[in-house]
UniProtKB/TrEMBL annotation, chains A, B:
Top-level taxon of the source organism: Bacteria
InterPro entries cross-referenced by the UniProt entry: FAD-bd_oxidored_4_C, FAD-bd_PCMH, FAD-bd_PCMH-like_sf, FAD-bd_PCMH_sub2, FAD-linked_Oxase-like_C, FAD-linked_OxidoTrans_Type4, GlcD, Oxid_FAD_bind_N
Protein name: Glycolate oxidase subunit GlcD
Species of origin: Chroogloeocystis siderophila 5.2 s.c.1
GO cellular component: glycolate oxidase complex
Keyword Oxidoreductase appears in the UniProt entry: yes
Listed cofactors: FAD
Lineage of source species: Bacteria, Bacillati, Cyanobacteriota, Cyanophyceae, Oscillatoriophycideae
Keyword tags: FAD, Flavoprotein, Oxidoreductase
Ranges for domain FAD-binding PCMH-type: 45-223
GO molecular function, one term: FAD binding
Length: 490, 490
């Protein structure tokens, strides 16, 4: 009881200030309501925030951040909470700024092919809003029916259609930002290239450590005249990998090119029963081709030929939206299906140079055997972005630790072959310890320059991305926490 | 004589240190040799540097920068000196670090479609090196046979082929950097998306204010199966502009789409006599289409139809390399040809949303009449990147000032319609006074965060990009200059 009262007394004046800005409905502080916000999509780590706020406007976000800044309270932004690297994982005594009430599409400018949205807008809504006029928003994470554009910006999200069109950073033209001291600023603009430093580029993928985006200008693309999905099935993963290499080497850039292995194929067939994925295939390739009808027809033929040359047993193609959706259905459900294979699964996200695919897949199989955990492979093959799903049972003591170690080995393997420890899920809380495997101390310190410049008090999403409280940003955070405690606890 | 000796005594110990790193041949200090380095492509401003150094390796650049840092001497990097915004304009008492000796192609990795080059490598060499294997480097500034990749990185250069494939920043995967204190660091890597802040993106276009790139990893593209250039001529600039809009609205993204007006057409026909550009046309469009043969054929037809619907008098197309080159020849020579129309010309570089083309071109014509200077328009129509060439005679007193004022009015017009004051030439020394027209004080201060973080002493290319010595970076520079003077002048 004493502890509870202490907690209460410490936050009371702060909550009063939040309520003055947001109203009572805009502040969540009851323990049972706070449980929802204990973790994001990385469910293996949990921490209840002290308080959750639900702003609706840029001004409200700025006021909330100013209160945090004045009182040295760390704050963490959260979109839909679907992130897989724990980027929105709370820390003790933090304020969670949730953008779920910021769901307005503010401007639709079809002539200049752009829309302006609030950060809470769901990814899929953008395409839904403009598809009638023949446009779409390209980045499409598997979670696109629930994840928010703000979260996509924070994590620089990808998706199956990012091979040809690029990840989120390639589709953000400008941002209205609330900086960690509550200042409102704008970066980028309506035209793609702007003078001065590319702050839009720095902010996208900064995982909430540089401030909060409150208005986002997105580029939308014209829907292609023709779209075709091609499914090829192979009797070995290596053959499928070789087909991927040959397609790219032939100068073809499909809209997307995905691979799934036998374990994933059977998992999705068990769960969503597409009926299209041969259960005995060692690997399938799903290739989406878009463009003019003549171009799609020609590329379809070329891709089919390359797949056959690499030993594909069968080729299925789909031209109409319904059949295309059916072919994609299994891939989109792959993560969810993994949940049916095993009580728990851990998704890893690494990138390798495409040419290393066969070697790395073999090594992953070796690691799987060595550690004794099954690994299902689902990935963006075209850009070498792997998503090994490690299947385990969290109720077995020590399993999570072993699985994390195995995940770490996979990441180190990616780095060893010249790749990266994250393709589209971000570093967050989950992978910061692997940053030194990829970057030298100098490289990391150079990144910290940016963090310190934007976030000198270290209050914006502390403890994310960077491995250790190496420099003053993080040190300041501990100072901030100490000061806050001493201020409120007497 | 006294002054000269003072100058000499001040620099003597510094030059000795440079010579110890670079040898006597690596240091230029004779007045008559320094004249070459007084300006870059923006010839209306000149300032002789105190000394020029010619490093060959990353280590030598780092040593030179360390000497500058220890002695508080400002330094400015220079590539081929073709920049049009004065980004490599020296200041008094500075060291100019010229990359002309850093011209090695360090690595060619065709499998992963990338090359690693030193900054002095000429833009065109990259394509020449890989074209035999069926690849090319996309960004192609008009100066591509002489400009350096390092300069392209500094200014985030564009070119006629950047409509479809993007400007320099879209083609740089990674950088080895010498930071302003002489630390060597690496940003980006071999795969396109890397975790942490996008420092590669921040560095590209930072105009030498954050350090010096000494190794650059570039993405190369597969040469398209088929390329076609289409020339359409129009009896009004508005009709050509409407055709541009309609082509993009139809969902076609040509590799490049350029427009030239009557004055430019006649200038290039006078000088290079292509014989292909109708002298009585009010505007011509040059459209390059690439892709599969069937795709190019289909798009050629669609573009020709759209041009005709917008009143094009004639359509010429070229499929073979020789004829394509002939059609491009005039466009590539446009800036040089302007020099034959008038003793001097001033190239402006602004961006507008494409939909504003007809309005802005009309307004530029009005400004031309109002100020009494002829303006030739040559531009990347597809991405709304204007290059008005203002023709004048610099020997008439006050002419340059009027022309700069007129150029400024054009930039303000670009900003008014939602555009930008630079598309591909950078801000440099020339346009920093227009930054407040485009950005608020907060926006500029946010950019300065980055500069101060990387460049706290303010020694790397001081006085560029930002309008005033607003914050401590620049203030530090004045301090540095003062200290340096007081140190050496007693």
């Amino acid at each position: 009881m004493r502890l509870k009262n202490q907690q209460h007394s410490k936050w009371k004046p702060i909550i009063k200030q939040f309520e003055a800005v947001l109203g009572k409905n805009g502040v969540v502080q009851r323990k049972e309501e706070l449980i929802t916000y204990e973790c994001d999509g990385l469910t293996s780590y949990r921490q209840r925030p002290a308080v959750v706020v639900l702003p609706r406007t840029t001004e409200q976000v700025a006021e909330v951040v100013k209160i945090c800044d004045r009182n040295l309270i760390p704050f963490i932004a959260r979109g839909s909470g679907t992130g897989l690297s724990g980027g929105a994982l709370p820390i003790e005594d933090c304020v969670l700024i949730v953008t779920a009430m910021m769901r307005q599409i503010l401007k639709i400018d079809l002539e200049n092919q752009q829309v302006v949205v609030q950060p809470g807008v769901i990814n899929n809504w953008v395409t839904q809003t403009v598809s009638g006029a023949g446009f779409y928003y390209a980045p499409d994470p598997s979670s696109q029916i629930i994840c928010s554009i703000g979260g996509n910006v924070a994590e620089n999200s990808g998706g199956v259609h990012c091979l040809k069109y690029g990840v989120t950073t390639n589709h953000v033209l400008g941002l209205k930002l609330v900086l960690p001291d509550g200042t409102v600023t704008e970066v980028g603009g309506q035209v793609p290239e702007m003078p001065g430093y590319d702050l839009t580029g720095v902010f996208v993928g900064s995982e909430g450590t540089l401030g909060i985006a409150t208005e986002i200008t997105l580029k939308i693309l014209k829907t292609a005249e023709s779209i075709c999905v091609l499914l090829a099935d192979f009797t070995s993963v290596e053959a499928a990998g070789a087909a991927v290499s040959d397609i790219i080497s032939a100068g073809i850039i499909p809209a997307g090119m995905e691979m799934m292995d036998n374990l994933s194929i059977n998992a999705v067939e068990d769960v969503v029963a597409t009926g299209c994925y041969p259960r005995d295939a060692e690997a399938i390739l799903l290739v989406e081709i878009d463009g003019l009808a003549v171009e799609v027809a020609a590329n379809k033929q070329r891709i089919a030929d390359i797949c056959k040359q690499n030993g594909a047993r069968s080729i299925t193609t789909a031209n109409d939206p319904e059949t295309r959706l059916k072919l994609w259905k299994g891939r989109k459900a792959a993560f969810a299906a993994a949940g049916h294979l095993s009580p728990d699964y851990y998704v890893q996200d690494g990138v390798i140079p495409r040419t290393q695919l066969p070697f790395v897949l073999q090594e992953i199989e070796n690691l799987s055997k060595q550690y004794g955990y099954r690994i299902a492979n689902v990935f963006h093959a075209g850009d070498g972005n792997l998503h090994p799903l490690i299947l385990y049972n969290n109720s077995i003591p020590g399993a999570l630790e072993k699985v994390e170690e195995l995940g770490g080995e996979i990441l180190k393997l990616c780095v060893k072959v010249g790749g990266s420890i994250s393709g589209e899920h971000g570093i967050g809380a989950d992978k910061r310890c692997y940053m030194p495997d990829m970057f030298t101390e100098t490289d990391l310190e150079t990144m910290q320059y940016i963090r310190q410049a934007f976030n000198p008090q270290g209050l914006a999403n502390p403890g994310k991305i960077f491995p250790t409280p190496r420099t003053c940003g993080e040190a300041a955070r501990s100072e901030a926490a100490k000061k806050f405690e001493s201020l409120e606890r007497f």
